[in-house]
Amino acid sequence: MTTLLRGLIERKEILVAPGAYDAMSAKLIEAVGFDAAYMSGFGVAAGSLGFPDIGLLSMTEMVENARRMARAINIPLIADADTGYGNHLNMLRTMEEYERAGLAGIQIEDQISPKRCGHMEGHKIVPVEEMAAKIRAAVVARKDPDMVIIARTDGISAEGFDGAIRRGNIYREEGADVVFIEAPTTIEQLQKIPKLIHAPVLVNVVPKTPYLHLKRYEEMGFAIVIYPPLSLTTAYTAIKEKLTELKTDGIMKDGGHGGVPFDELVEFLDLTKYRALEGKLLDGRKR
Fold it and tell me: What are the Cα distances from residue 71, in Å, to 164, 198, 203, 232, 267?
């Protein structure tokens, strides 16, 4: 999966990686036909513990969630690793655990810990030397040289656009494979980033980022586009709507299954495959 992800990043066509927060949302991304998925830290915090994205999850909680997601799909999974969960020494273990979990790519950022969602306000970032040491640690710790390291900077919010570009290029020099300049606020900034960063670049489509057709991001020169909250916000909207309908009307118009035929859902979850395997196992016992 690491080698596959590298190939997808290097091709001319932009890599679209919708956000997932659990195994089922990751499976849906694969089923619809996307080439990669992105495990959103925002999504995991909300979906697994009902927390906001303010650095409350531990490395082990994030890794276990990532492991389940990676096992459920046959496309590369990129996973948010927040700040690396400590200093450069902690980053050594973080990289080891994420790699063992079956991830194709890991994303780390330069905020202080505890961090906060990149599209909230009031970011504080570590000295550039501290983040550089974490990137070097990630490079040293990875066993598979194709494991993709994505370095994110929240420098626009904390130091301004020029400061973010300076950091992005330093992170590339220290070994990052992809640079992620978080929260550009104008189309002009978006257009400049791929020209000024000497590496493949990622664009994160969330509230502060100008919302464009994905082909526009491709034309600008971005290698990856991610949509981190997509699965979570869609699920939130649909669940709230159905619960409100049940509470208000006492019955749902499309039945207790919420509109998805039960047979379709269990087929999506591979029940037929498991039943067939079960049959083979039981036939063997009879012999």
Answer: 35, 33, 26, 20, 18
- 48-69 per-position pLDDT tens digit: 999 988 888 999 999 999 999 9
Task: Give burial (CB, 10 Å; 0-12/13-18/19+) of 216.
Answer: middle
Superfamily of domain 2-235: Phosphoenolpyruvate-binding domains (3.20.20.60)
Query: Please, which residues bridge with residue 16 across strands?
Result: 225
CA dihedral 179, 183, 187, 193 (to 10 degrees): -20
b vs e for 6-34, b when ≥16 Cβ sit within 10 Å of the residue's Cβ?
bebbeeeebbbbbbbbbbbbbbbbbeeeb
Q: What is the DSSP letter of 121?
A: S
Cα gap 185→197, rounded to integer Å: 17
pTM score: 0.91
